[in-house]
Amino acid sequence: MNDRDLLLGIIHEVKNSVGILQGLMELLKRNLKNQDKKLAEEISSEITHLSHILKRSSPLVNSLKLSISPIQITELLDRVLFLAQEDLQKNRITLEKRYPGVLPEIKGDPELLQEAFLNLLSNGIEAMPKGGRFIVEAFPKDNFLQIEFIDKGAGISKENLEKLFLPFFSTKKEGLGLGLPLVQRIIQSHKGEITVRSEKGRGSRFIISLPL
Ligand SMILES: Nc1ncnc2c1ncn2[C@@H]1O[C@H](COP(=O)(O)OP(=O)(O)OP(=O)(O)O)[C@@H](O)[C@H]1O
Ligand SMILES: [Mg+2]
Predict the structure, then answer these.
(1) CA distances (Å), 15 to each of 31, 73, 93, 193, in order?
(2) CB 21: neighbour CB atoms within 10 A?
(3) Which of 76, 180, 83 is nearest to 127 (CA)?
(4) Which of 59, 61, 159, 184 is the most buried (most CB within 10 A)?
(5) d(CA 14, CA 8)
(6) Does any ligand 1 atom lie closer than 6 A to the CB of residue 167?
(7) Tens-of-pLDDT digits for all 212 residues of the chain?
(8) Is the CB of 178 under 6 A from ligand 1?
(9) CA-to-CA distance for 98 and 155, rounded, in angstroms?
């Protein structure tokens, strides 16, 4: 067994136990009152935090090794947008797909790229709590495929832009700050690049280039 599979196995086991703990705490809370209930709620919220960290850990460990195959990026984007569909609708966000039916194939790990794109989408959705517009664009540029995720949400201050990809940087109450470091790691492991353009109050544009 290699290191990666060992780590994934450990994460899986811990995740199972944490899931059981979560369920047991819910049962326990039903029969508690006052101070005891408060204490149980504190424990529950720590367990939830732990489960968020574990959920984030598997893709991080997975990104240690790529499973490369040819990818039609438009199919992958369609899939990701399909998966995010409900979330987008629920948040009253209209989606604009700006990419043709077919683009030049790239080589990459579809699962990891999907994970990266989903993270950018959920950040965009979280930046538009009152609804808005989300645009996904993809086109070839020189020897790269450029993919852009554009939201018309809260935007990012100059000060925060510098910290964006640092692990554990988050401005959200429940945020871990592990999404963008994971995205960056995945893109870099594909010999690609990710950059951001953003203006406070106007929205953000995450630009990914992947080699063709
Ligand atoms: N599209 C966006 N619009 C505005 N701010 C953003 C956007 N994407 C990221 N950010 C800022 O960057 C921070 C870090 O993002 P990141 O995805 O790494 O962590 P997070 O979303 O806070 O938590 P999680 O680990 O659950 O993803 C966010 O807390 C937010 O302040
Ligand atoms: Mg995030």
Answers:
(1) 25, 31, 32, 32
(2) 16
(3) 180
(4) 59
(5) 10
(6) no
(7) 888 888 889 999 999 999 999 999 999 999 899 999 999 999 999 999 999 899 888 888 888 788 899 999 999 999 999 999 999 999 999 999 999 999 999 999 999 999 999 999 999 999 999 999 999 999 999 999 999 999 999 999 999 999 999 999 999 988 889 999 999 999 999 999 999 999 999 999 999 999 99
(8) yes
(9) 21
Task: Report the nearest-CA residue for atom 7 of ligand 1.
Answer: 123
Which amino acid type is present at position 200?
Answer: K
Amino acid making up residue 150:
I
Ligand nearest the Cα atom of residue 124: 1
Q: Provide the residue count of the chain.
A: 212
Amino acid identity for residue 97 in this structure: K
Encoded amino acid at 146, one letter: Q
Could you tell me if 80 and 118 are in contact, meaning their C-beta atoms sit under 8 angstroms apart? yes
85, 125, 127, 170, 212 from 155: Cα distances, Å: 22, 12, 7, 14, 30
Closest C-alpha to ligand 1, atom 8? 123
Q: Which H helix or E strand runs over 75? A: helix 73-90
**Measured in angstroms, how far is the CA atom of residue 170 from the centroid of ligand 1?**
6
